[in-house]
What we know:
Elements (H helix, E strand, L loop, with lengths): L18 H13 L3 E5 L13 E11 L2 E11 L14 H14 L7 E5 L9 E5 L24 H19 L4 H4 L12 H16 L7 H12 L9 E3 L8 E4 L2 E5 L6 E3 L2 H20 L11 H12 L6 H25 L16 H9 L5
Antiparallel strand pairs: 1-2, 2-3, 3-5, 4-5, 6-9, 7-8
Helix pairs in contact: 3-8, 5-9, 6-9, 6-10, 7-9, 9-10
Amino acid sequence: MNEPASADVPRPRTSTRDRSELRERLERWLAARFAEAQVSRLAGPATNGMSSETLLFDASWRERGARRSAALVARVAPDPAAVPVFPSYDMERQFRVMSALYELDALPLPRVLFCETDPAALGAPFLVMERVVGEVPPDIPPYTFGQSWLSKGTPEQLARLQEGSVGLLAALFRVERPAERFAFLASPRPGATPLRRFVAELRGFYDWVSEDGIRSPLLERCFGWLDAHWPEREGPTVLSWGDARIGNVLFRDFAPVAALDWEMAALGPPELDLGWMIALHRFFDDLTRNAGMPGMPDLLRRADVAASYEKQTGYAPRDLDFYTLLGALRHGIVMFRIARRMAHFGEVQLPADVDDMIAHRAMLERMLEGAYWK
């Protein structure tokens, strides 16, 4: 499913759980539901997944007299002792989003089978879904480093991948009555519009990350910039995937076959996902070119993504300076938290300048200066 991580780019630690014990507990959980349940040795993706714990396994059981077997994936909420990225992990919420989209046949998704909210089984809530065969653009090392299947694609293949990836967001645009259908995603934060409430949620996330007293002057400048450059008109409310990036898509022959990781799903304008998709690719590409490698600067260019989205939906994205900075800010808060986790596991020491905890500090600074997209 994923390529092995390079020895030059070690995977940060994300879990303290024992896989053998997890396998036994997962098998007992399945056996409580079906006869003759068996679970194979658990594996995890080597190159992706920094939030929830992802477990790949094969399972078999007897159901209604017939023997069944399946290749499955479990997504388990992280151990609180492992410095989780987010303050809470609502697995039932993810299950409801994915189930509704699967039933609508709105875009390609794995079929979710079970959602266990009782932490007694594995020590944390989890959901189980069917495993889809495909290739994921790796995060570790980044797909832009020139070592992955993606970086070896022809221009025609990469164009197909880009069009299909934007097409996933276009499919969400076409979901009818999203605010009604996904009302359980509505934020309780104060704010007159979905975007106002979305940014209020983001401020709450930043405050939680900074509860230890370490605050980022750069991230706070970004919040100030957003307040000063708020869009005059917000786009229509759609279901926002939240973590809409190609590293969360399974591809076959450079076409998407499954959209993964819906833990950040929300309601808001289409540009939320567009800005995130563009900013996250630029994050990886900037890292690559700063390391002296060519990168993939022609993939997911901002103007190309916007043009593709308009072509597929009829809606012209606007205010992309705002939304790409918003995406980069969201990722900056995530990186600010991940730095703490790496320090917790002894993988790094926190720097004297706290803004150096943000891997794309230079990107954010140039965005604030209005120089990044020139």
